[in-house]
Amino acid sequence: MVYQAFYRVYRPQSFGEMSGQKHVKQTLQNALLHNKTSHAYLFSGPRGTGKTSAAKVFAKALNCEKAPAKEPCNACPTCLSITEGSNTDVIEFDAASNSRVEEIRDIIEKVRFAPSNARFKVYIIDEVHMLSNSAFNALLKTLEEPPSHAVFILATTEPHKLPLTIISRCQRFDFKPITSAEIVDRMNQVVADAGVEAEEAALKVIAQAASGGMRDALSMLDQVVSFSGDRLTAEAALLVTGSIGEDIFYQLAEALLSKDAAAALMLLDQLIVEGKDVSRLAEDLITFFRDLLLLRTAPDLSELLELVSNDERFVSMSSAFEPETLYSFIDILSKTQQEMRFSNHAKVYVESALLKMIHYEGPVASSSHAPDPHLSQKVESLERLIGELQQQLANGVRPAEEAGMAAPPKKNGSKTSQSFRIPTGKINEVLKGATRQDIQVIREEWAGMMHTMQRSHSALLEETEPVAASDSAFVLKFKYEIHCLMASENPSLRSGLSDALLAKTGKAYDVVYVPEDGWLKVREEFIRNNDLSKLQDDGTESVDGGNGGAAEEMPNFMQEAEEQNADPIVSEAEKMFGKDFITVHDD
């Protein structure tokens, strides 16, 4: 017969053979036993955790001739035909290769026909998140109210891609990653059945490399058995899976303890030459320091160790590191792992991480240091300064004012990154040429322009408002200063905004950013300096001198200022009786 891989031969044929997923098995078995099964199920979770296997077992249990029962008998003709894949009433549908609406319509047309030789017609749709939107819409009504003889089981590794209308019509079961102990137990059964002698350390290496997936573990086990023959060794498992042995980890930790950069970098280079994946190496180093932290803080939980064993050398090694140092190592490696995702020079990042850990000046448990005299002096100086500040506050003197009188304020170079500097000159130039027609053009096109920009850019500009505009520039007011600062420091947003304005208005405007508080101050100062607060009876401004557009007609920002300063009671009375009949007397 043709050889079959372990993960196909040892696919679970009953709930009892499934590893892990106790919450899923118990719920489905109770529903089967009490005839409370639903019409639609959603199985979601990482790859290789048993979603499709559970769906097939559930289909057999539904149609078993000895039902209702918690387990399929696997002996009746119906169970045997489903196991062989020859039962026409259990339809497996791969949505990854049949994602179009036409394939779903074929299912919808046939679902109303009664099953030919079983109690239920079961549709198992694998990788359901690959269906198109039109396919989901076509499936929606049938999924909500299928015939009484139909059951849908949807399986996916990415449930967040499914429409909420689909998820709400299904009973959802989240499959969890299988623990290393459960994977090792299953592999022990497989190697015993296959007549292969295996070391426990070799199975642990494979379980660690599988990352919670039983199918990945059995595939790697199959590969290691083919490589090593009748005896499965840890060395063979390390070589085939690309993992790292305990000895290498121990040598690397010793190099970090002794601050030996050459030894650490040589070990790294040796691992890469042997074909170890650099990204996998960073992940294994994080797990290794996690194991040391576990040995350091909770030595009784040795069964949770993943990469190292609970022998004396690693226990003593963990005692040589302080927990703060191990936390820092994990943090350095985690940041390195994130940065490596966007680079083609992953080795450089891991080398830099090792050097950072070597030069990390953290506490060392094996040695005691005398108190630093410089640190004591700094503490005394700070305490004395705090005492003086408290005395000044008690006397009613503000420390900031006293410091300002004693010495001129120093410019803080980093403050520009924390607060926004208002471009008063640019705003005044816009206000000098501001007209109502210019601001009206921008405001009419503003909403449509926001829809054409990137979603992140339009979200940042959501609480903004164009408040004044000239022929070549306009002022954009932000409700929050932090949003104004972020927008001004984002060159991508500035160019995108200019392009969108050019496409909508036909003009390449210069945009001046200002927070709301800053805009109110600059506007008020401009009105005061240019004597724009006095209006004639006909609504035009009485302005001396040539202020360009500001003198020709009342700018939009002036109109807003007048509306804001108006008394609401007077405004309401003018609306009711007219301005000619209203006289306002100041008390």
Question: Which secondary-structure class do the elements indicate?
Answer: alpha/beta
Number of domains: 4
Largest β sheet strand count, sense and barrel closure: 5 strands, parallel
CATH topology of the largest domain: Rossmann fold
Choose one word for the global shape: flat
How many DSSP H or I helices? 28
Total E-strand runs = 10
Helicity, as a percent range:
40-55%
Mean pLDDT: 80
- End-to-end Cα distance, whole Å, is 107 Å
Strand order of the largest sheet: 2-3-4-1-5
CATH architecture of the largest domain: 3-Layer(aba) Sandwich
Strand content: 5-15%
Structural Rg: 36 Å
Assign the CATH superfamily of the largest domain: P-loop containing nucleotide triphosphate hydrolases
| Uncertain parts | 364-369, 406-417, 534-554, 561-565
CATH C-level label of the largest domain: Alpha Beta
Write the SSE topology:
Layout: H1 6-9, H2 22-33, E1 40-44, H3 51-63, H4 77-84, E2 90-94, H5 101-111, E3 121-126, H6 133-144, E4 150-156, H7 164-167, E5 171-174, H8 180-194, E6 197-198, H9 200-210, H10 214-228, E7 231-232, H11 234-241, H12 246-257, H13 261-273, H14 278-297, H15 312-319, H16 323-340, H17 346-358, H18 373-394, H19 399-406, H20 424-432, H21 436-452, H22 455-460, E8 464-469, E9 473-478, H23 481-488, H24 491-505, E10 510-515, H25 516-529, H26 549-552, H27 556-565, H28 568-577
Parallel strand pairs: 1-4, 1-5, 2-3, 3-4, 6-7, 9-10
Antiparallel strand pairs: 8-9
Helix pairs in contact: 3-4, 5-6, 8-9, 9-10, 9-11, 10-11, 12-13, 13-17, 14-15, 14-16, 16-17, 21-24
